[in-house]
Amino acid sequence: MASATGGKEGEEVGNIFKLSETTVLKIQKGDITLWFLNGSSDAIVNPANERMLGGGGADGAIHRAAGPELVEACYKVPEVEPDVRCPTGEARITPGFKLPASHVIHTVGPIYDSDKDPKASLTSAYENCLSVAKENNIEYIAFTAISCGVYGVLFNVHAWENMIILFYKITRIYTCILLKKLRQLLYLLSKTLQMALKRYTLFCSRINCIMFG
């Protein structure tokens, strides 16, 4: 999603969760097209389609903010089959061009009504984003909630709780060896966010995740 209801843009609405000695997971509301950490080793994740030529929601917003150079760079990404530059669950990287973040990592999440194993495809999308980040020396990365728009994740507390726990499990495994710091931006409805974060906090306490913030 490109925006959220409730709260000001960029407002801190969640906590900062420590994943390792060098990595934190930060949950906040805001406009991902404005996010950056240092403009040189940071990246935002674009929830793209398989063609990688722009679309609706956050994908369209990122392309508009980056300027026409982004779609030109995407055209240059080799097709693995006709009209497919990035298959579902995979990730590709381009420069950020006019975006404040230095890079854009494009990934394609599952369409929940048609994917045979949407959880596995979504997990693969996040893992491949982190792998691409490592390969390109990205230290800071911001995610939108992939597949949570027209691709079909329902906006309810249980869905968001499961999504946040999935984020945690993936990032917890990867961050000790991949990234110095991880920033994750979730654009959530305020009531859903409040309850999901409460449950996530309980989840962290059950597994002795160190929290601060």
TrEMBL record:
InterPro entries: Macro_dom, Macro_dom-like. Pfam families: Macro. It comes from the Eukaryota. Gene3D superfamilies: Leucine Aminopeptidase, subunit E, domain 1. PROSITE patterns: MACRO. Residues 12-186 form the Macro domain. PANTHER family: GANGLIOSIDE INDUCED DIFFERENTIATION ASSOCIATED PROTEIN 2-RELATED, MACRO DOMAIN-CONTAINING PROTEIN VPA0103-LIKE ISOFORM X1. This is Macro domain-containing protein. The lineage of its organism: Eukaryota, Viridiplantae, Streptophyta, Embryophyta, Tracheophyta.
